Amino acid sequence: MRSTLALGFVALLVPACLVGTGDITGTGGDDTTGGGGGGGGGGGGGGEGSGEGGGNNTPTPRVTGTVDQTTVSTELGKTVMLSLTIQSEDGFTGPVQISPSVVSGMTAVTDWTLTATPASVTLAAGESQTVQLAVKIPTNTAALSPTLNIDLGSTAEAFAMTSAFTVANQYTVEIAAGTGTGAHSSLPNPNAPIKLRPGAKLIFHNGDNIQHVIHSDGMGFPHENTGAGQAGTNYIVTPTQSGTWYCHSHEGGGLARPVLVQ
């Protein structure tokens, strides 16, 4: 009988433990309360960093340049004059060295003569100066389509300019206006032979107002017809070997000028 009463009492106690608000965390004063912990804090993630920084926006001093002819068409034996403008930018001051060179593809061309006048300039801030560059092409060069490079060296970043050359495979001998029957001083010196590569043309241009017939020894090219050589005309040949020539009309063999084909 006592066991029956005890079981009944326990049965009454169990439902009583389950009755309530359902909040098992309660509102008691123990340490498990809260739920709104530090996660609600206003941490530094909302800070406003400065986007301006302390960077230096001062431009870097530099040197630039231009060349008046970026392409050149000429022929063998000519000297081409180029005008270069060297400019100070963003406050550059100091010396600038002009260093020209010629390349054909990836190969350096060493038989051209390049002379910059002056070879260097000294610039004040914002200043520009002009340099004349003489490009002398040999009569026997093999470089007919090279590129002229012009490098500007200074304490600033290097700067380069280019000019593309097209060289006709021909050399012109000019009989100048006013030559007349006297000394033909405009013609090449007998001691300065014309050097040509095989296949190059030799053009005798009569720029005078009287007849000039070209005499040849017949070795590299034929004698000009004595009825030709009139004022303003050309005698065009392609020498096949070395020989000599002079003006048949007004000179003698003592002034024979050599042509060397090599």
Description:
There is one protein chain. By secondary structure, the chain is mainly beta. The chain has two domains: 107 residues, Immunoglobulin-like; 80 residues, Sandwich (Immunoglobulin-like). It is 6% helix and 39% strand. It has one helix and 17 strands. The strands form four sheets. Strands 2, 4, 5, 7, 9 and 10 form a six-stranded mixed sheet that branches. A four-stranded antiparallel sheet has the order 1-3-8-6, with no helix packed on it. A hairpin with a 2-residue loop joins strand 4 and strand 5. The chain is elongated and about 80 Å long.
Brief sketch in words of this structure:
The chain is 6% helix and 39% strand.
Using the alpha-carbon principal axes, give the shape: elongated
Estimate nothing, just give the exact number of structural domains.
2
Count, helices: 1
Mean pLDDT: 86
Low-confidence stretches: 1-53
Return Rg in Å: 46 Å
Distance between the termini: 142 Å
Find the CATH topology of the largest domain: Immunoglobulin-like
Give helix % range: under 10%
Tell me about the largest β-sheet.
6 strands, mixed
* CATH top-level class of the largest domain: Mainly Beta
Strand content: 35-45%
Class from helix and strand fractions: mainly beta
User: What oligomeric state best describes the polypeptide chains here?
Assistant: single chain
Q: What order do the helices and strands follow?
A: HEEEEEEEEEEEEEEEEE
The tally of strands reads 17
Key structural traits:
262 residues; mainly beta; Immunoglobulin-like; 2 domains; 6-stranded mixed sheet; 4-stranded antiparallel sheet; 1 helix; 17 strands; disordered N terminus
